[in-house]
Amino acid sequence: MEVSYQQEYLEAGCDEAGRGCYAGPVFAAAVILPIDFYHPLLNDSKLIAPQVRVELRKYIEANALAFAVAQVGVEEIDTINILKASQKAMHLALAQLAPAPEFIAVDGNYFIPYKKLRHACIVKGDGKLANIAAASILAKTYRDAYMQRIHEEFPQYNWAANKGYGTLAHRNAIKHSGLCIYHRKSFNILSAQSELFED
Q1: % of the chain at pLDDT higher than 90
Q2: Has 16 been labeled as part of a binding site?
Q3: Which residue(s) pair with 2 in the sheet?
Q4: Is residue 4 domain-resident?
Q5: What UniProt keywords are attached to this protein's entry (predicted)?
Q6: pLDDT 10s digits, 41-56
Q7: 130 pLDDT exceeds 50?
C-alpha cells in the first residue's frame, strides 16, 4: 500500500464514517503521514476487527505528522443533507491540521474543493493509500466510541452493536420505540423501512 497519492506536496488523506447510518453524527478524519509510515495491518477500516482498529488508532496517532477528527451532528445533517454534512466534516477535520496540507487524497468519487487545494478522489482509496486508510480508522473508531456513549442513553436501539446502521434489530427497535433525538429525521426512516419491519 502506497503512503500517499503523490510526493511533491504535503498530502492529507481524508475519509468519513457513518454516512449511511440512521442515527448519530457523521465523522471525518484527515491524516498526514510520514513518507516511511508502515503498519502491516493497516487497511480499509471496514475490513479490520474492532479491537485491531483501536490498536491501529493508537499507532496512527503516535506516528502521524498531523491528524484531526471532526463531526457534523444530526440536526445539521437533517438541514443540509448527509452528502453536504459529510463534506463539511472533512473540511472541518482538514482545517485543524498543523502543518496545513498542500494536497488532499479523498476516499470516494466526490469532494467539494477545500481552500482551492489540489485534490484527488480515489474510489476505494481506503484500501489503496495508507493516509486514507489511516483517516478511515480514525473516523470509524471515534464514531464507534461516540455511539457507544449514546447507547447508554437509549439502550433499546443497541447502538453499541449496530453503531446506528439500519440493521434488522435497529429497525425493529424503531418500530416499537419510535425515533429519538439522535435519529436522522431527513432519512424518512419510518416510512422507508416500514415494509422491512418484522413483528
Answers
A1: 91
A2: yes
A3: 129
A4: no
A5: Cytoplasm, Endonuclease, Hydrolase, Manganese, Metal-binding, Nuclease
A6: 998 888 899 999 999 9
A7: yes
Are residues 147 and 50 located together in one domain of the fold?
Answer: yes
Q: Which long-range contacts (CB under 8 A, 24 or more apart) does 15-18 make?
A: 15/106, 15/107, 15/125, 15/126, 15/132, 15/135, 15/136, 15/139, 16/86, 16/89, 16/90, 16/107, 16/139, 17/45, 17/136, 17/139, 17/140, 17/142, 17/143, 18/139, 18/143, 18/163, 18/164
The pTM is what? 0.93
**Do 112 and 190 fall into the same domain?**
no
44 is in an annotated binding site: no
d(CA 163, CA 184): 13
Neighbours of 19 (CB within 10 A): 15
Consult the annotation and say whether 144 binds a ligand.
no
